[in-house]
Structure formats: C-alpha cells, structure tokens
Amino acid sequence: MSFADIAASGWKAFWSNLLAPGTIGLFIALAVICLLLGFAFRRTMSGLQFALRAGSALLAFILIVGFLGVLGIDMNALTPAINWVLEQIHAPLYVKVA
Length: 98
Prior knowledge:
Number of domains: 1
Structural class: mainly alpha
Number of strands: 0
Helix content: over 70%
C-alpha cells in the first residue's frame, strides 16, 4: 500500500466521520448552545468576541472528530441517542440510522 493510498483512505475516513448523522447533530447542538451563550454573555463580553471564540472551538471540534474517524472511532453510535433526544423534545426531525 503506497503513501497516496494511505492518505486517500485517511481523508475518506476523516470526512465520513465528520459527516456522520451523529456528528452533525452534535455539531448543531453545540452551535445553538454557543449562539445562546453569546446572547447571554453579551454584557460582559462583546458578542463578536464570543462568536469568534465559539467558532474556533467548533473548528477544533471538527478537527478532533475527523481525526478520530481516521483512527477508526466513528460517531454513528450517537445517532440513536440523538433520535431519543429529538423524540423527547417532540422535534419534527428524525436522523436515519446507517
């Protein structure tokens, strides 16, 4: 197996883990929490500064989850848990289990 094959399989694993339904659900939840915290703390910290910090934290989360996918740890196991939470809050969404 050549270095190019290893790099290509790692790149595919990175994006497949990053775009797994469980990861996307977790990413959306973190984005909503960061947005709400940005409005809550706008008096002590400007909203733009908090949004920049939250954005950098979300980018770090994306990189960590992607590298976990390269190592073989996927986030597809989170899908049933996300569906359970969506069912509890009666959200009109359902994440398809792969």
